[in-house]
Amino acid sequence: MAGRKRTVILAAAALVIVFGIFGVFYSRRQQVDPISATAFKLNTVVTVTLYDSQDQEILDGALALCDEYERIFSRTLEESELYRLNAGELPEEDGGYTLSDPLSELVAAGLHYGDVSDGAFDISIAPVSSLWDFTSGEGSVPDSGAIAAALELVNYRDVTLEGNALHFAKEGMQLDLGAVAKGYIADRIKDYLLEQGVESAIIDLGGNILCVGSRPGGDPFRIGLQRPFASRSETVATVEIMDKSVVSSGIYERYFEEDGVLYHHILNPETGYPYDNGLVSVTIISDESVDGDGLSTSCFALGLEKGMELINSLPDVQAVFITEDGELHFSEGFEDELTVIRN
């Protein structure tokens, strides 16, 4: 209903999947088949699909950008700029570090969403997040004393960025930019594709989806909402998207279970433990993917009520919040601006 939140009861929560890549909604009016390239980069599966070009070199260039930015933003790659910053290995001047333009831009975005969320989103969480292992399959709950000690170094307000000059208020502070990096990289890949004359494409960085334009002929791309903890073919609804980003944050992305309790990767900077606020996921639809990245994590951290209040206060942004009871909560005007197809 226009002007207020719509809710729909579903049996399970959902996350984002692109049907167009797999041809489920392939338009027979297309004159040429799309071309794709897939590789494991940025610690995830990356796929770039071109709908109006057959130039393989463009795809190669797009994937190469992932490698370029990983060498800047990775928290674990020892030669990356961020790793060297966290290790105190970058050259210091006047008690601070001089960052490259991309790293300073990404830090600025992270600090912005710290302000937007009043600290619920915090890029200085690295001392705590480094204690948790959500990727090896052998994760366990860290020692409580270690978490408490690491929390002493977590406060994004102790990070000062002036131009490219970054200062930490406390020795030992570190940054984790994983919650905004893929969105930033997707935006840069889109810029590159547009420079190459591509006007119809999908960039998929491990579920961070950025649609470039529309399908040839003007039809929108169709982005599906998939049941979590299920195969990507199990969907509950689709949304028609043109020239937009679709990004989700949820408890099903990276997690482990211990003693019957699920521990997920979205950590509360106040406690050092995963947020437990009744949410399963938040999906953001925005013009730029870095905003979708920052807002999906921020809104998840804020919870349903405050997160929805934030989204409804922002222009040109829509969201779907999924609660543990399987209910979908749409932001104001969602179904006025976007076509939702129920399966």
Concise synopsis of the structure shown:
The chain is of the alpha+beta class and 343 residues long.
Task: Give a verbal description of the structure.
- By secondary structure, this protein is an alpha+beta fold.
- It has two domains: 7-70 and 190-342, T-fold (Roll); 71-178, T-fold.
- Helix content is 28%, strand content 27%.
- It is built from nine helices and 19 strands.
- It has helices at residues 56-73, 81-86, 101-116, 126-129, 144-151, 178-195, 289-302, 304-312, 334-337, and strands spanning 7-9, 15-18, 35-41, 44-50, 92-93, 96-98, 159-162, 165-168, 200-205, 208-213, 221-226, 235-241, 245-250, 255-258, 261-264, 279-286, 318-323, 327-330, 340-342.
- Strands 1-18-17-16-13-10-9-4-3 form a nine-stranded antiparallel β-sheet. It has a four-stranded antiparallel β-sheet with strand order 2-11-12-19, with no helix packed on it.
- Strand 3 (35-41) and strand 4 (44-50) form a beta hairpin.
- Helix 1 packs antiparallel against helix 6, helix 3 packs parallel to helix 7 (289-302) and helix 6 (178-195) runs antiparallel to helix 7 (289-302).
- It is globular.
- The two termini are 19 Å apart.
- The model is unreliable at 1-30 (pLDDT under 50).
Write the layout of secondary structure elements.
Blueprint: E1 7-9, E2 15-18, E3 35-41, E4 44-50, H1 56-73, H2 81-86, E5 92-93, E6 96-98, H3 101-116, H4 126-129, H5 144-151, E7 159-162, E8 165-168, H6 178-195, E9 200-205, E10 208-213, E11 221-226, E12 235-241, E13 245-250, E14 255-258, E15 261-264, E16 279-286, H7 289-302, H8 304-312, E17 318-323, E18 327-330, H9 334-337, E19 340-342
Antiparallel strand pairs: 1-18, 2-11, 3-4, 4-9, 5-6, 6-8, 7-8, 9-10, 10-13, 11-12, 12-19, 13-16, 14-15, 16-17, 17-18
